[in-house]
What does this fold into?
Amino acid sequence: MSAPAVLFDAPGPKTVARHRLYTILAGIALVGILAFVIWRLYDRDQLEYAKWEPFLTPRYITALLVDGVLVTLQMAFSAVLGAVVFGLVFGAGKLSDRAVVRWFSWAVVEFFRAVPVLLLMIFIFFSYGIDRGSSGAYWSVVIALTLYNGAVLAEVFRAGVLAVPTGQAEAAYAIGMRKTQVMNIVLLPQAVKIMLPAIISQCVVALKDTSLGYAVAAPGLTAVGRLIYQGFGNQVPTVIVLAALYIAINLVLTALATWVQRRFVGEKEPLEVSLVGKTDAGGLGPGTR
Amino acid sequence: MNAVLDNLDLALRAFTYTILLFLIAGVFSLVFGTLLAAFRVGPIAVLSKATAVYVTAIRNTPLIIILIFFRIAGPKIGISFTFVDIKIGGLSFTNLFVACVVGLTVYTSTFVCEAIRSGVNAVPLGQAEAARAIGLPFAGVMREVVLPQAFRASVPPLASVQIALLKNTTVAGALGVFEAFARMKSLINDDVTQRVGIFLTFALTFVVLVEIVSFGANRLERRYRVAR
It folds into this structure.
């Protein structure tokens, strides 16, 4: 339900008193937890200036932001760009009329959705990136993320095209358009609008997964963080700062996705992307029966 | 491929770790996630907002940062699990394993909370209104009317969260637990020429595991699906 006010009536005096008691207890518990965390940090000398100094020094801040955040953003956006192309190709394949193309696309998409990203990353690293130093690791991360997110975006693409009201396709067939024309002229332009929030959410996923480059020593925010905490022994502050940076970037992206959803798609339901392993055969419109 | 067959016991041990990580973290994340969802949906505003902040923070952090916290930064502030030291057969479960389980649980339970909340939001408003209209109190509304339907509606998102957990257990391998990813890396390291065979074996095993979970989820969803 969208209105929690329906779950419980306007509270009467006893309930108001009880809720006030619960609120006070909850407030005390939360403040207690916060105080305990801060006390623990203080007790173990984690709040010392020496541990936080690297994050206030311009040289390290630039390193964090340029070598860290910028490289991570580059990796994420290259991966998403590649993933959009991959998704278009295999999403269109899943919607094809020819069974061979459909089943092949289905197999490829299922495989890359079910295999963990780390396995892909290591395999590509050992095949391609191992003698190329940090640029090899960078591209292993990007290619692995492209393959995984491309498979997810293929599903998003298919769900987006199928989410366009069926009347559109029927009308297009009725005036005599062929399948390709229906896709290109009528369905795709409307589907892109519907898919946009899902694509931006996939950016958030890609950004979080760039941190997996830790396993192949790829450049990026986590690598810079590791250098800092190995050099200064300030693990706890580093983890806190890294988490804060990731959360900030992801919150911006999520806000963007919500704005796009509201502005271009309206208040409708967000896109329903099917689960890994669901085998609904593709196909689209009257032309495929 | 031969490399895997020669080291079959190592590979099987690795997948046992994977499945155990998945099962333990899965169960705990379901429990903890339901608790978080109860806070989110309940009447106490302080708890609801605090949980919303917590869930948003953890959801937007990469899993590896959370595992690094429990594994590397945690011991510095006294969070360590060295009291655990169990050895069964060839498998050993020490503080490393427990730290990864705890990290996976913390991360996944926030996604479970969001999945359950989306299930609760999917129950039509009229149901709760009707329940209030016949005089059920809050506990009654939740227990008799809302939660049974919310459970049905939240099976698909819960299933995809658990499948994501199964794939996320590989991140524990990047931090030292010798499960499937770490074992694959070590086997490829030993013999790079066999990398394609090794990768395909491990990848296809993961595909099979994911398909099993997905099949189970489909059966569950079909059984509980409500015709609207």
User: Anything to note?
Assistant: The first helix of chain B runs from residue 2 to 6. Residues 153 and 188 of chain B are 43 Å apart (CA to CA).
